[in-house]
Design brief:
Elements lengths: L7 H24 L4 H22 L6 H23 L3 H22 L11
Length: about 120
């Protein structure tokens, strides 16, 4: 069996590094309420940067397969970012409407002066 320049433990580490950064970006994005398209774009750039580093830095093509997968994954993330820009989720649309409704309610509640309602019990 030929040796391609890296051992299996190094290859596993090369696969784990982009995975860790992918999830860290997701956690930070959720914590600071980053919009989905921007989160996807950052994760895509992360994948593509790791792929370029793996193509250039790993000797004898030891991580070319992993780099190819990372480039494909980055492309999919770019497409997801584009899709979420063109077709935002219902949650994002409804939260914007809910905020407008809450503002309208607070404006109306301040303008209502005195409406007396009597409750009749049967």
């Amino acid at each position: 069996m030929t040796h391609n320049g890296i051992d299996i433990d190094q290859f596993i580490l090369l696969a784990i590094y982009p995975t860790i950064t992918f999830f860290v970006i997701g956690i930070i994005a959720k914590r600071i309420s980053l919009r989905e398209p921007l989160k996807y774009a950052i994760q895509a750039s992360n994948s593509i940067i790791f792929a370029m580093v793996y193509f250039l830095a790993v000797p004898n093509g030891g991580a070319q397969g992993l780099a190819t997968v990372l480039i494909l994954f980055g492309g999919i993330l770019i497409l997801m970012a584009r899709k979420s820009l063109l077709h935002p989720k219902e949650d994002e649309i409804s939260t914007g409407q809910d905020k407008d409704n809450e503002r309208g309610r607070s404006d109306r509640s301040g303008s209502v002066s005195s409406t007396n309602r009597t409750v009749h019990s049967p």
